[in-house]
Amino acid sequence: MPTQKAYKTGSSPPEPPAPGVLRLISMRFCPFAHRTRLVLAAKGIEYETVNVCTKSKPEWFFSINPLAKVPTLQHDGKVVYESLVCNEYLDRVFPGRKLLPEEPLEKARIGMLQAVWDAKIISNYMKTKRTEGEERQDAFKAFKEGLSFLEKALASGGKPFFGGDEPGFLDYSVCPFFERFETTLHGDLALTQAEFPKILGWKAAMFDRPEVKACGFDTATYAAVLANYDPDFGLSA
Ligand SMILES: N[C@@H](CCC(=O)N[C@@H](CS)C(=O)NCC(=O)O)C(=O)O
Q1: Alpha-carbon gap, residue 179 to 165, rounded angstroms
Q2: Is the pLDDT of residue 56 over 80?
Q3: Residue 114 and residue 7: Cα distance in Å, rounded?
Q4: Cα angle: 187, vertex 188, 193; to 5 degrees
Q5: Which GO terms describe its biological process (predicted)?
Q6: Which residue lies with its CA nearest to atom 17 of ligand 1?
Q7: DSSP state, 5?
Q8: pLDDT at 96 over 80
């Protein structure tokens, strides 16, 4: 695709992907699409990107994905959406390093940590962003209680990543949010070395990975897009 700019309401649809070409429909700053970009990079899968504006959606997007959410994959006439579903599909269909364990209990362990992430961690993080004072402190406490499950999982696994010696499925699904935590979790909401030694070591190791560096943006960019949604932020006119 010649442009990274987002298709918006009223735009003509792009040509369908050429046979054999994998297409990711994305939004440059979406943490869920970021999950899928990380998996594509980690597995060295070639793909093209079509960016859409998720606040002023192009009408044609609804005929590809009824939810019109990113990430959405188009692959040989098939459509796959929902970030975790996309990531499992990519892991199963494409060669390269396997990100999800085959062993049923190991796979269940990853799924359960993902459920803790959704129910206890990310929901309370979002709450810290829209509350103040005591309510915000309570949300941060609940966020840390959730995060302590991940801290324990890393400690008991005895490896740098949830996936073992290299990042796996869960590492890539939570990493985009850690990049965004940098915008608000500081000062009295900072994660401390005393409470989260494993998580902070994991974060440093993740942020040092080439695929993570290749897919992310800096904190100032996330903060600017958080303050003023613009899917084309940073692109020249
Ligand atoms: N559960 C979805 C969430 C995806 C999502 O909410 N993406 C946002 C952009 S960050 C979106 O497409 N929003 C448009 C909408 O909610 O209608 C997933 O994991 O893929």
Answers
A1: 21
A2: yes
A3: 31
A4: 80
A5: glutathione metabolic process
A6: 69
A7: S
A8: yes
